[in-house]
Amino acid sequence: DVVMTQTPVSLPVSLGGQASISCRSSQSLVHSNGNTYLHWYLQKPGQSPQLLIYRVSNRFSGVPDRFSGSGSGTDFTLKISRVEPEDLGDYYCLQSTHFPYTFGAGTKLELK
Amino acid sequence: QVQLKETGPGLVQPTQTLSITCTVSGFSLTSYYMQWVRQTPGKGLEWMGFIRSGGSTEYNSEFKSRLSISRDTSKNQVFLKMNSLKTEDTGVYYCARGLAVMGDWGQGVMVTVSS
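^ inputs. structure came back:
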C-alpha cells in the first residue's frame, strides 16, 4: 500500500498568518493516464471531511483562494494564507492513484 | 441538492455482522461511484471500497474477505455489510460520492463494537 506521510502532526498558527502542510507518498502518485490523484481535506470537530483541493492544485467548489495546493510525484504541499477561525481543524491528504486509496494521518491546525 | 445520510445500528456485538445504509438524494446512483470510508481511533481514515455507477465493486484488500457493498437504485440506497466484527472496527462510517475524489460526504454513523 502507498504510505502517506503528513508533517507536521500539529501546527500552531496565528489568525491572519500562514500555514503550510506537507504530504509525502511512498511512491509516485502519477497515474498511467498522466493525472496525479492527490487531494486535501479539512475535518472540523464533529463533522465529515470536506474536500478542499483535488488533483494537487484544483480548488473545490466554494473553497476560498486562501487555500492552495502544489507538488508533484511524491511531494505535495497545502498552503493556507491569512488563516481564519473556520480554517482550524484536522487536515488530511488522500491519494487515489493506487489501490487501495490511502489517507495521511492528519495535521491538526490550531491557534498559537 | 445533493444529500447523503448513513443509518446503522450504533452498537454491534463482536463476531456479528454490521449493516449500514446510505440513502442519497439529488443525484442518480447510476451516474456516480459511491465510496465507503471509515475513521477509527486506531487507524484514522481508511478507504473501504466503492460501487461503480455500473454496479461493480472494488474493495480494500484489508477488508475484502468480510466486506460487501451493494445498492438498490430504485430506493436510492447503498449498503455496506461487514461480518466478523472486532472491537477494532469501532468508529465512524461514512459514505461519499465520487470516483477518484470524494466531493460529497454523509454525516457519518458511529458504530461501537462491544459485548
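The two ends of chain A are 35 Å apart (CA to CA). The mean pLDDT of chain A is 97.
thumbs up if we can close this ticket
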